[in-house]
Amino acid sequence: MNAPGSAPTTVPNGSVAGQFATTRWTRVLAARGETPEARAALGELCALYWEPVSRFLRREGRDEDAARELTQEFFARILAGGSLAQADPERGRFRSFLLGAVKHFLSETRRREQAAKRGGGVASESLDVLDAAGVEPADPAGSAPDTYFDRQWAFTLLSRAFAELEAEMTRQGKAEWYQTLKPFLVGEAAGLSQRAAAETLGLGEGAVKVAIHRLRRRFREIVRSEVAQTVPTLADTDAEMSYLVEVLAAA
């Protein structure tokens, strides 16, 4: 394991720096979920990004228990297979796939509930992510729900990155460093000076500046690694990183 901020020699899944590793999502897309490896990768992604779906369903007017039950049903149907058949590798961000799928699922759930209120039933449809034209189902409420989902996605991704960095520094015996310097990861910490941080850690201000720089760099590396797991190419990683910054800035 590299020290915080040191230049990594590898990127996700052991690829040499400068190459693009095979990620969870590329494995899923390559096999359309038919191989055990691809299905395991899809299961990992679903488990990691459960929270954005649950929050999206709560935003649509469900209470916490109902949202939890619907989230379980949604992912059970995703993992049951078939929903990846029309996924387009050229547009294959996992975030886009998941949002399109949950919107379709929510629309189908509403139709089923309305039919039940009328005393009738409605046949269950397959959970196809794309319609016949290869376009995500339209959202009658406009783009706001999409933005909300993407923001929750970004928060979840950053939370995972924070947790990984904390675990990494704890293994290195630098848990106090992480707790003291964490406020500086996303901009200057309000009410906390670098001098105060230096005194807490028993370091000079110059050493703290270097430590903060390295910690920020390592944090960006971890975030990039997380993003790379959900897109099919290196170019998509760059675009997704830019979009991540955009949606967080608008929060």
Provide a descriptive summary of the structure in words.
The protein has 251 residues and is an all-alpha fold. It has one domain. The chain contains ten helices and two strands, in the order E-E-H-H-H-H-H-H-H-H-H-H. It has a two-stranded antiparallel ribbon. A hairpin with a 3-residue loop joins strand 1 (10-11) and strand 2 (15-16). Helix 3 packs antiparallel against helix 6. It starts with 9 loop residues before the first strand and ends with a helix. Residues 1-21 and 121-143 have low confidence and may be disordered.
Topology:
Blueprint: E1 10-11, E2 15-16, H1 24-31, H2 36-48, H3 50-59, H4 64-79, H5 94-117, H6 144-171, H7 175-181, H8 194-201, H9 205-228, H10 234-249
Helix pairs in contact: 1-2, 3-4, 3-6, 6-7, 6-9, 8-9, 9-10
In angstroms, what separates the terminal alpha carbons? 34 Å
Label the overall shape.
elongated
Radius of gyration: 21 Å
Measured by DSSP, the beta-strand proportion falls in: under 5%
Major β-sheet, in short?
2 strands, antiparallel
Q: What's the total number of strands?
A: 2
Provide the spatial order of strands within the biggest beta sheet: 1-2
Structural class determined from secondary elements: mainly alpha
Contiguous low-pLDDT stretches (5 residues minimum) are 1-21, 121-143
Order of helices and strands: EEHHHHHHHHHH
Return the average pLDDT rounded to an integer: 78
What oligomerization state is this entry in? single chain
Number of helices: 10
Helical content, roughly?
Answer: 55-70%
The number of domains = 1
